Amino acid sequence: xxxxxxxxxxxxxxxxxxxxxxQTMRDAFTNMPDSLLxxxxxxxxxxxxxxxxxxxxxxxxxxxxxxxEMDTLTADYLHLKxxxxxxxxxxxxxxxxxxxxxxxxxxxxxxxxxxxxRFYSSxxxxxxxxxYVQLPNIDAFLAxxxxxxxxxxxxxxxxxDLELVGMALSSSESxxxxxxxxxxxxxxxxKKAKSLFKPITxxxxxxxxxxxxxxxxxxxxxxxxxxxxxxxxxxxxxVKMLLLLLxxxxxxxxxxxxxxxxxxxxxxxxxxxxx
Length: 275
What we know:
By secondary structure, the protein is α+β, with helices and mostly antiparallel strands. It has one domain.
């Protein structure tokens, strides 16, 4: 009887050691539904990981006949260059000893850097973003009080009428870095405006991203809440961004004159709508 009990305990221990094993990013990327990354097929994703394993360039031709490349894959992080103007990052984050969530950041870079973040369970069920991160108010990016701005600096600030934010996950740390997007300004204006803003770092702690307090903690603590008509507002912002792109002759020529320019422009619209 004692031997039988020991045998049952051993079988149970083996079962839980296998089934309780933490998921890796490779597992998550393998099991990711095609609908969440529609430019890549399941075979494309498998090929990318095989190429990296073989120390080869992990590049495939996606469904828009544009090159996509995986340049980083660790146990808990992945970085994909989807096109010349878009990228995707993924990070496995622990909620407790037995539960993980997957953070996914989508970023487009033309005409201005703009990112969105989503969270998923380990079996790719979408979760409520506000349960895992509270995005700071746009004024939290200011490096100094608005009352200290010169007339020129105030003019630059007014030129940033779209509240666009870049996001970056870390391959080595459980953190999210936010930066104010300045792409609406000219290159000369961006150089002048850069010193007006600072990045904001959120650390993953106790199952959510927590804001690191700074001297401007009061303004950073104000949560940037998205309006109920968020998708409508996003669409309007996207139209404005496309108009900015079309008004820029240089950017327009760069996109349209390239072999995949039309595909890139279409892809940008698709990804903005998805975000």
